[in-house]
Amino acid sequence: MQPKKLTQDWRQQSIADHVPSAWKQPLVMLGLAVIALVVLAAREWGEMLHQWWNIDTYNHILLVPVIVGWLVWLKRDELGAATPKGWLPGLGLVAVALSLWTLGRITGINLFAHAGAVGAVMAAVVAIIGPRISMLLALPLAMTAFLVPFGDEIIPPLQMITAEIAIWLTLASGVPAEIDGIYINTPVGLFIVAEACSGVKFLIAMVTLAVLICFTQFTSWIRRVAFMVAAIIVPILANGVRAWGTIYIAQSQGVEFAEGFDHIFYGWIFFAIVLVIMLGGAWRFFERDPEEAGFTSEELSAMSWIARLERFNGSHAVILIGITILAVLAGIVVALTPAVAITAPIG
């Protein structure tokens, strides 16, 4: 009979039973605020989800929520002992983010609209839990920004850089070649550094990973900067080597063989090797464990400026109402702007 009783007790428990009482109302308010903001920017969240799932350049973003959740979990003990307090200036942050979303929606600049949609949720978190706990969760909040798909803007320069590296290595390896922008002409055919070959996918993923490593493994800013620089330069150089390797192999094995080899080896194995080399090279310079990342409650208590910010605390209900009003106003502006633009007098 005892095992049955234990099973029944376990079934009667819910997640809410494990949530500290001080967090129950703020989490409900935060959930409602996030729902309101996601509904407002449903088009942008749908577009981002499509990019995360269907465009391989942004597939790595699917791991960002997992990373954010893990970083929050590392702070679970300190969060359990803390009391979330609504922060009125946080409404200003929500207003700024929604202004960016509005600008992006009106102008058709997706990067602005997506950044505003994500930023509004981040700002709502700050407004609901207050500056002290927000600083405690500074790293996971910052990592949330990587939900925004970005990188298309740097594809053209990356194509040019890749082509320049590839032509230099091609000539250095004794293969005659000519370059015209992103076109490289060799004895066996013309090679084009296409958008898919720009290396933007690996570069963005490496930058995301580098930010995580910099702030979970290093305490020295010099080492953080050095690793971040390496995370930018190494993928760019590696992609140039990849392009050269494809061209070089094609000279003896044929273009079709080189293309297949590029997709199989260079597309997966090569960059995995580069990643292992980078992490292996930085491993012995790691200065702490991830559990030690971020500020501690004791460190935050010593920061007098946080106490000054907390003078502007407000009730969670007021914060939620404020966020809802801002969301409605942003929605009205977006809905009316096309009509205003059409009816505006000329001259």
Largest sheet: number of strands, sense, barrel closure: 3 strands, antiparallel
Strand residue content: under 5%
- What is the first-to-last residue Cα distance? 86 Å
Average of per-residue pLDDT values = 87
User: What is the H-and-E element order?
Assistant: HHHHHEHHHHEEEHHHHHEH
| Strand arrangement in the largest pleated sheet | 2-3-4
How many distinct helices? 15
Total beta strands: 5
List unreliable stretches of 5+ residues. 339-347
What characteristic shape results from the CA principal axes?
Answer: globular
- Helix coverage percent of residues? over 70%
Report the structural category.
mainly alpha
Question: Compute the gyration radius: what is it?
Answer: 25 Å
Characterization of this structure:
The protein has a three-stranded antiparallel β-sheet with strand order 2-3-4, covered by helices on one side. The protein is globular and about 70 Å long. The protein is mainly alpha-helical and 347 residues long. The chain has helices at 2-12, 21-40, 42-54, 64-74, 76-80, 90-107, 110-136, 138-144, 155-172, 200-217, 221-253, 255-283, 297-301, 304-309, 316-343; strands at residues 86-87, 178-180, 183-186, 189-192, 313-314. The relative contact order is 0.12. The model is unreliable at 339-347 (pLDDT under 50).
